């Protein structure tokens, strides 16, 4: 589908499922190479990263663990800049090599909050992997270790990303139509 309607908004295709799969494979190859002989702990941020985390982990060939946390900071198409932890980290990660999995990093505020939480648990190291990155929206100053695709500062849906809870199920990514 080239165009979809979600609630009161129209969206046009921006990134195809094939392009997403290629980016996920590139990220998996880098992580497999850099963590060879290691057992990283992946921390996937719900709800948005569930498709990315699933597809990435299917391509990870090294031993690993995954856990999930749930944060919230969006209302409609805008960030509230108020991050709430809805489901926290339950595993002991002290001394572990951690890779946070995000579907998208735009302002970086949500992830900054999570980084602070995880660093208090004293991991051996902490890296960040995101499928999508909006460099023009990013206002924080931390390193993003693995970026699948850099995108413009458009509001997008599909492949786990939503508009008021809808459109997460689409295999492609759509941007809001002007």
Using the coordinates shown, work out and report the CATH topology.
Rossmann fold
Note the total helix count.
3
Helix content: 10-25%
**Mind telling me which CATH architecture this is?**
3-Layer(aba) Sandwich
Work out the strand percent: 35-45%
Descriptive overview:
This protein is of the alpha/beta class and 178 residues long. Helix 2 links the parallel strand 3 and strand 4. Helices cover 22% and strands 38% of the residues. It has a single domain, classed as 3-Layer(aba) Sandwich (Rossmann fold). Helix 1 crosses helix 2.
SSE diagram, text form:
Layout: E1 3-6, E2 9-15, H1 17-34, E3 41-46, H2 50-59, E4 65-75, E5 78-87, E6 97-105, H3 109-119, E7 125-133, E8 146-150, E9 156-157, E10 173-176
Helix pairs in contact: 1-2
